[in-house]
What does this fold into?
Amino acid sequence: MKNLIALLSGLIFGIGLTVSQMVDPNKIIGFLSITTSKWDASLLFVMGGALLVFGVGFALWQRYRSAPVFESQFYLPLKQHVDRPLVIGAMLFGIGWGIGGLCPGPALANLLAGNEKIIVFVLMMSLGMWVGKKLSTTKIF
It folds into this structure.
């Protein structure tokens, strides 16, 4: 049942990305082009809607639930401070997002389209995640 709920959640997320056109790299590039006359604010509304849904859900969770439905506890981040790996990772994510116009969710949702640029993006994203994991275990940062 847990896997079915995860699958349905992923499908709903992918449908939402598709309906909001956030799987189109040009929409993201349009949002990031804030200083041009072609600025597209639609991503701002998608993010705002997501924050609203999360805020309501989080408030309800804190009030009525002590654990998820299919787990014995919630797994929340334990770190309470900003450190070098977080800053470096956020910068790399932002640079990649700005250059490619995609982040992991829309990239994965786009895989079924068979676009070779998206396939290369996902392969490079996977490679970057692998390298990041290797670097984090060698304590370079």
Remarks:
- Residues 2-137 form one domain.
- Helices lie at 2-19, 25-32, 42-64, 84-100, 104-110, 116-137.
- The mean pLDDT is 86.
